[in-house]
Amino acid sequence: MRYVSTRGSAPELGFSDVLLAGLATDGGLYVPTEYPTLPELPTGRYADLAHAVMSPYIGDEIASDDLLRMCVDAYATFRHPATVPLVQIDTDEWLMELFHGPTLAFKDVALQLVGRMFDHVLARRGERIMIVGATSGDTGSAAIDGVKACGNVDIVILYPEGRVSDVQRKQMTTVDAPNVHTVALAGTFDDCQDLVKAMFNDASFRAELNLSAVNSINWARVMAQVVYYVAAVDALGGQPVTFSVPTGNFGNVLAGWIAREMGASVDELIVGSNTNDILTRFFASRAMTATGVVPTLSPSMDIQVSSNFERLLFEMNARDGGATAEQMNRFRQSGRMDVEPDQYARWIEPVFRAARCDDADTLATMADVYRTTGMQIDPHTAVGVSAARQCAPHGSPVVTLATAHPAKFPDAVERATGRRPELPEHLADLFERPERTTPLPNDLATVQAFVRSVSRH
Ligand SMILES: *Cc1c(COP(=O)(O)O)cnc(C)c1O
Q1: Which of 107, 148, 197, 408 is flagged as catalytic?
Q2: Ligand 1 contact via 249 beta carbon (within 6 Å)
Q3: pLDDT score of 111 more than 80
């Protein structure tokens, strides 16, 4: 399997290079030259299903045995025997719980595997990398946990001091591994992101430390997420299933679209947004218009632009990378992008629905699910449930992806249900564990010196 960039001018690469590169050199995102049809599905463990679904994308770049071992190890970290269990919440309405991994958010499903793939490929090549990233919460802890056992990867995560929740901070700062480092930056999340960008733009620093990222545009993360859509359809007996997906960067719902392209029995995909509703507005108007970001109860969906949408746009442009690059450039300059009615009719209309859910709806949905089922759901999942109910598909079962454990957002859950959710057993002592972090000023030279000092390159 080969991969091409959505902007058409970066070199074609194989899976391992795409894994390590993340973003393409022309600023585009890598996609496979074609979406393969689903292979014959094995019965049994989730890891076996993951191995079967992902194999066509990896080809012989990772030996089949090695891939299976990585899948088994990655999903052994999940504290549920079904890895991603389905739970029924109403007639024809289900949750797929993607939060049984080490950091209680769905990002573990991809990052537990991708961390292992990084280490495997790097070991083969005799290389090491330094991952630097900025986080406002979930991504940092999932990335850290995914690479904490990797001999060939160091990681430094910057977070804004005092602006991430206690649970989120503790999940990052209590990891005791020699390759894991966190920085409590005196600044905002945007300051953290700006520093990371500046480090990547410093070509000699980047080369010296072999800098890398594991952000959500990495193809391997999207690929790993295709698997649970296939698992859900399979578990519900193969009938057409609609999915409702609490959406930020569009990575998760794009994986559902890919599962559908591969032939999985996916009916419709419902894109749930919070008040940061660029996607809802796009699906209603055919125009993508960027506005400012406002904070909500579902912070992991507080985005301005959904970066993974570019992969769908590339398909809408009949895989014309030049046209996609032009469109993205115009969008960056003007903050607006329009798609043609025929593109919309061909690609969006038959598959996607979209709905918006503000904080009041989010709380009301959490309260309603608690009242009717006794289950507590987190605010991101609540956006998905609300979107599913607003779009009310006709007859087919709807699976909402439950993207975070309620205990990850205890304040919002307590506000909606009157009861504070408890951390699962493996994290029950989180607040007693010693923290290790480095407070630093918002200064590029100081942060670069720190990153250099902890690199084992
Ligand atoms: C990251 C995240 C999302 C958004 O997923 P995308 O792939 O960016 O659309 C939703 N919910 C939670 C809990 C997350 O951590």
Answers
A1: 107
A2: yes
A3: yes
* Ligand 1 atom with minimal separation from the 247 CA: 9
pTM, 2 dp: 0.95
Q: pLDDT-derived band of residue 137, with 50, 70 and 90 as boundaries? A: confident
Of 301, 381, 400, the one to substitute when testing ligand 1's pocket (max ligand atoms within 8 A of C-beta) is 301
Of all residues in the chain, the percent with pLDDT exceeding 70 is: 100
- Running DSSP on this structure, what letter comes out for residue 348? I
Q: DSSP labels for 109-156?
A: HHHHHHHHHHHHHHHHHT--EEEEEE-SSHHHHHHHHHHTT-TTEEEE
Per the annotation, the verdict on 170 as an active-site residue is no
Q: For ligand 1, say whether the CB of 168 is within 6 Å of any of its atoms.
A: no
Tokens representing residue 388 in the block? 């599913």
Gap from CA of 347 to ligand 1 centroid (Å):
23
CA 153 to CA 219: how far, in whole Å? 19
Cα dihedral: 387, 392, 396, 398 (round 10): 20
Check if 105 has its Cβ closer than 6 Å to any atom of ligand 1. yes
Q: Average pLDDT, stretch 356-369?
A: 98
What is each CA distance from 456 to 107, 108, 129, 130, 150, in whole angstroms? 26, 25, 9, 8, 12
Confidence band, pLDDT 50/70/90 cuts, at residue 201: confident
